[in-house]
Design goal:
single chain, mainly alpha, three-stranded mixed β-sheet, 3 strands, about 65% helix, binds zinc ion
Length: about 500
C-alpha cells in the first residue's frame, strides 16, 4: 500500500469518527433545546453508545498501525501542511486515548452520571456532606487517571493537559499570581466608590421577543446569518457546531433583566465565529475545532467584552436599543448605559460575575483543585477553604454551600483542570486584541459605524482558520505574535477601563 493510500485510509477512518462525534453533538443540542423530558433515559444510552463506537474505532489497533506506517511519510511533509498536522494530532490523541484502560474510562463515565445527579440534589438542598462521597470518588478516579500517564512535575499537569494542551500548573500560576496581585487592589479601589455606577436601567420589563430580535440584530453585524446559524432558548447556554456551515447558539432570557441574554448571545456568537472560521479543508477531521478551550474562550470573551461592552459598539447600537425598549431606556443616556453594563460588584456566583471580578472566581477554583488533587486539602474542609478565599479575594461572605462550593457542575462531571481555561482565555483575548488593533487601528471608529467585519476577517486570518492544526502556543503566536501567555495587556485594559468608569484618577 502506498503512503497516499494509507493516508486516504486514515483520513476516511477519522472522518467517520468525526461524524459520530458530531451526531453526539446534535443529540446533545436536541436534548437541551428540543427534547421532552421523557427522552432523557433513552438519550443517555444513545449518547453513550455513539461515544463508545467512536472511542473503539479510534483506539483500534488499525488506527495505530496506520499512524506507525505513516510516520516516515509525515516527516517529509511540511509541518504546517494539513496532512502532517492531521497525522501529528491524531498520533497525540491516539497515544493519550490508549493509555486509559476501558474499565477506568467506564467507571469515570458512570461516576460522572451518578455524581451529577447527586450534585443537582445537593445543590438544591445546599447540602455539601451529601455530595462529599461523590466528590471523593471523583477525585480518587482522577488520581487513578493521572497514574495512566508518564510522571509530570505535578499530578495536576495531566488533568490540565486535557483542556489546555501543553500547559502546566506552574505555567498557570506564573500567569495567575501577578494577575491576582494587581486585580485584588483594583477591586478594593472600586469598592468605596461603587455607587458611582448603577445598573438599574438594565432591570425592569424587557419582553423576551423584543430581546431576541434586538440581540439578533447585533450578532448579524458580527457574522450570524440565517443560512448557517440558529439561535434557540435553553437553560444553560452553550454553543455547538455540526459543521463549519451549521453553527448553533443558545441563550437564556430573563424577562426582567437585559444583560444575561444580550451578553450571553455575544459570547456564544464569539465561540461560533471561531468554529465557522475554520478552514473548510479541515472539515471532518480532528483538526476541525478550536486549538484549546482557552483559545476558544478568548474568542467568546473578545466579542462579549472587548467588543460587546465597549463604548464604541454602543455608540452605534444604543439608539436602536432605546427604540426597542423606550419604556425602560428613553431617559437613559449612552454614558449611563455604558457604565451600567460594566458595573463592578463582587458577588457569590461565578457565572454572574462582572469582567473585573470574574478572574478571581476562577483563580480560587484553580488553587483549590490543586490542593484537592495534591492531597493537602481534605475534601471535608473544602467549604471552609472556599468561604475563606471568597472573603479574602472578593470580600464577600458565603451564606451557604449552594451559593458557594456547590454552585458549579464541573467537578461532578469530573472536569478538574477546566476552570483555569476561562481566565487564560480572557488573558489571551487582550493579547489578541492588542495585535488586531496594531493592524486595524481604527477599530473603534468602525464599531461606532456598526462595522465589525474587518475584525472578524482579521480573526479568521490570524486564528480561526487554523483550527487545531497547531499547538495552543503556536496558534497564539500566529494571532498575538508571541507564544507567551501574558496577563499584562489584560490588566492594562481592565485598569484603564475601570479607572475611567469609576473615575479613580
Ligand atoms: Zn464560553
Amino acid at each position: 500500500m502506498s503512503s497516499h493510500d494509507r493516508l486516504a485510509e486514515l483520513t476516511a477512518r477519522l472522518a467517520a469518527i468525526h461524524d459520530l462525534d458530531k451526531v453526539v453533538s446534535l443529540l446533545l443540542w436536541d436534548q437541551d433545546v428540543m427534547m421532552p423530558r421523557g427522552g432523557a433515559a433513552a438519550r443517555a444510552e444513545q449518547v453513550a453508545t455513539l461515544r463508545r463506537l467512536a472511542h473503539e474505532q479510534f483506539t483500534a489497533p488499525e488506527t495505530g498501525r496506520l499512524l506507525d506506517e505513516l510516520a516516515p511519510y509525515a516527516a517529509q511533509l511540511p509541518a504546517d501542511s494539513n496532512e502532517a498536522s492531521l497525522i501529528r494530532v491524531a498520533r497525540r490523541d491516539f497515544d493519550k486515548a490508549r493509555r486509559v484502560p476501558a474499565d477506568l474510562r467506564a467507571e469515570m463515565s458512570r461516576t460522572a452520571s451518578l455524581a451529577r445527579a447527586a450534585w443537582v440534589d445537593a445543590r438544591a438542598a445546599s447540602d455539601f456532606p451529601a455530595f462529599l462521597p461523590f466528590l471523593q470518588k471523583t477525585i480518587d478516579l482522577k488520581r487513578r487517571y493521572i497514574e495512566c500517564f508518564e510522571p509530570t512535575a505535578e499530578p495536576y499537569d495531566v488533568l490540565l493537559d486535557d483542556f489546555e494542551e501543553g500547559m502546566t500548573a506552574a505555567d498557570v500560576r506564573a500567569v495567575f499570581e501577578p494577575f491576582k496581585q494587581q486585580i485584588v487592589p483594583l477591586i478594593a479601589a472600586v469598592a468605596p466608590v461603587a455607587d458611582r455606577v448603577s445598573d438599574g436601567c438594565l432591570h425592569g420589563a424587557f419582553p423576551v421577543d423584543r430581546q431576541r430580535e434586538f440581540c439578533l440584530s447585533v450578532v448579524r453585524r458580527f457574522g450570524f446569518t440565517d443560512e448557517q446559524w440558529r439561535l434557540d432558548p435553553t437553560v444553560h447556554p452553550f454553543e455547538t457546531s455540526l459543521s463549519v456551515a451549521d453553527i448553533r447558539i443558545t441563550t437564556r432570557y430573563y424577562p426582567d433583566f437585559l444583560s444575561p441574554a444580550l451578553f450571553g448571545i455575544m459570547h456564544e456568537c464569539g465561540h461560533g465565529l471561531y468554529e465557522q472560521g475554520i478552514d473548510p479543508s479541515l472539515e471532518r477531521t480532528p483538526l476541525c475545532r478550536g486549538a484549546s478551550l482557552g483559545l476558544h474562550e478568548s474568542q467568546s470573551r473578545l466579542w462579549e467584552n472587548l467588543v460587546g461592552r465597549s463604548r464604541a459598539a454602543w455608540t452605534f447600537f444604543y439608539p436602536a436599543l432605546q427604540r426597542t425598549f423606550p419604556d425602560r431606556l428613553d431617559g437613559v443616556d449612552l454614558e449611563t448605559f455604558y457604565r451600567a453594563i460594566n458595573k463592578v460588584e463582587p458577588s457569590l456566583i461565578r457565572v454572574e460575575a462582572d469582567e473585573l471580578t470574574y478572574g478571581l472566581h476562577v483563580i480560587l477554583r484553580f488553587e483549590l483543585e490543586q490542593e484537592m488533587i495534591g492531597g493537602s486539602l481534605p475534601l471535608a474542609e473544602l467549604p471552609d477553604a472556599w468561604n475563606a478565599r471568597m472573603k479574602a479575594y472578593l470580600g464577600v461572605d458565603v451564606p451557604d454551600a449552594a451559593k458557594g462550593v456547590l454552585q458549579d457542575v464541573h467537578w461532578s462531571l469530573g472536569f478538574v483542570g477546566y476552570f483555569p481555561t476561562y481566565t487564560i482565555g480572557s488573558i489571551m483575548s487582550a493579547q489578541i486584541w492588542q495585535s488586531a488593533l496594531a493592524d486595524l487601528p481604527d477599530l473603534s471608529e468602525q464599531f461606532a459605524r456598526g462595522e465589525f467585519l474587518a475584525l472578524r476577517h482579521w480573526l479568521r486570518d490570524h486564528l480561526h482558520r487554523y483550527g487545531r492544526k497547531f499547538t495552543p502556543r503556536e496558534t497564539l503566536e500566529k494571532a498575538a505574535g508571541t507564544t507567551a501567555i501574558d496577563a499584562g495587556p489584560y490588566v492594562a485594559y481592565l485598569r484603564a477601563k475601570f479607572h475611567d468608569i469609576y473615575e479613580l484618577g
